[in-house]
Amino acid sequence: xxxxxxxxxxxxxxxxxIWGGNEAVxxxxxxxxxxxxxxxxxxxxxxxxxxxxxxxMCGGGKIVRFALMDVxxxxxxxSDLAAKLRALMRKHxxxxxxxxxxxxxxxxxxxxxxxxxxxxxxxSYFAPTDQLVVLNAGHPxxxxxxxxxxxxxxxxxxxxxxxxxxxxxxxxxxxxxEFEQFAVQLGxxxxxxxxxxxxxxxxxxxxxxxxxxxxxxxxxxxxxxxxHEFCKRLVEAACSGPDRKPADDDLTLILLLxxxxxxxxxxLGDTMKVIARMLGLVKV
Length: 284
Hints:
About 25% of the residues lie in helices and about 30% in strands. The protein has six helices and 15 strands. A hairpin with a 4-residue loop joins strand 9 and strand 10. Helix 1 runs antiparallel to helix 2.
């Protein structure tokens, strides 16, 4: 299992910065209003895979975005797609509305042809209102721990039960496609778990898949007050042990902790650096 050095602290994401890719990683991150832990393990110990993850923060430090894509297959063209996703993250970095971002991603996949597609989960945190905007394109539903009631549930739009799990279709299936999103209000100490389907496709020795409901049950057994340990403990519970078998696929988890911190006040020097990034004078 991958692990960061014990002495290493969280990586602080700066304004107009994009962090991520499709390589193996185990990293803590700190941003305005959100602390996060990203764990990605490509199939069979490969250095990179078909799961693509990115984190960005806007020029004003108010919008933090998390993107997770699960590209069909186990790599191949994923590195090229990772580069295109980064460029699109850069283009939309200052926009809270994710619909245009998702539409651009869908055009990229449709243009590839050959049946290439991906599921995607896009989330944008807006610090002034503590809202998390979610767009799900065929991806497994995130889990949401509400600290106020000390309970886990699915992070889904409020809709009739038979419609909740349908969501938007994966990227690359139909062009054009309209993508819908929804927003929830996060409370201090809330957790949001985003993951690829390898986690819920882990199985018992008799072949029974864990599934979303099984994952929800497992999450409820892990101490939410220790988020820095949560992803590893969840992966161990779902995929390890004499009675569990991991899925034959890349695996990625992103855990968000809502700290509710406000955007920092910026010095003139910091402001000039942000402007330079926005103008393209500094690479993002």
